[in-house]
Amino acid sequence: MAVPTYNLVRKNELAVLEFSIPTGVIETSELPAAVEQAPHVDGNLAVCLNGRGPVWLFSALTHKYHYTRAVSTYEPRLGACVVTASHDPKYKVGDLIRI
C-alpha cells in the first residue's frame, strides 16, 4: 500500500502539510485511505499542501481541508504557497503565502 506519510508543521497562521508517497506511486483505490489518514488541521489556520503527488490527491486533500481559512499548494519556483481556495477575505485565490 502506498498511502502517503504526513508531517504537519505550523508556521504562524499557516499549517504546512508535507506529504510523501513512499513508493512514489499511489493507486486511485488508495485515495480514500490517503485522505482519511491525513491529519486534522485547526480550522482557524490556512493550510498549505506540499508534496509530490497526482492532481487527484491534491484535489481530494483540498476538499478535506475546505473548512480551514484557506487552502494553498506549495510552489517551489516561487518559494511560496499559492492560494487555491478560501473562505477568508484575507486570502484570495492566487495570493502567495510566503513560508
Biggest sheet overview: 6 strands, mixed
Computed Rg: 13 Å
| Assembly classification | single chain
Order of helices and strands: EEHEHEEE
Counted by DSSP, the helix tally is 2
Roughly how much helix do the residues carry, as a percent range?
10-25%
Structural class: alpha/beta
The total tally of domains equals: 1
Terminal CA distance reads 31 Å
Low-confidence parts, pLDDT < 50 over ≥5 residues? Answer: none
Strand content: 35-45%
What do these coordinates show?
The protein has 99 residues and is α/β, with parallel strands linked by helices. The chain has one domain (5-98). 17% of the residues lie in helices and 36% in strands. It has two helices and six strands; from the N terminus they run ββαβαβββ. It has helices at 31-37, 55-64, and strands at residues 5-11, 14-20, 46-51, 70-75, 80-86, 96-98. Strands 1-2-3-4-5-6 form a six-stranded mixed β-sheet, with helices on one face. Strand 1 and strand 2 (14-20) form a beta hairpin. The protein is globular. 26% of the residues are buried.
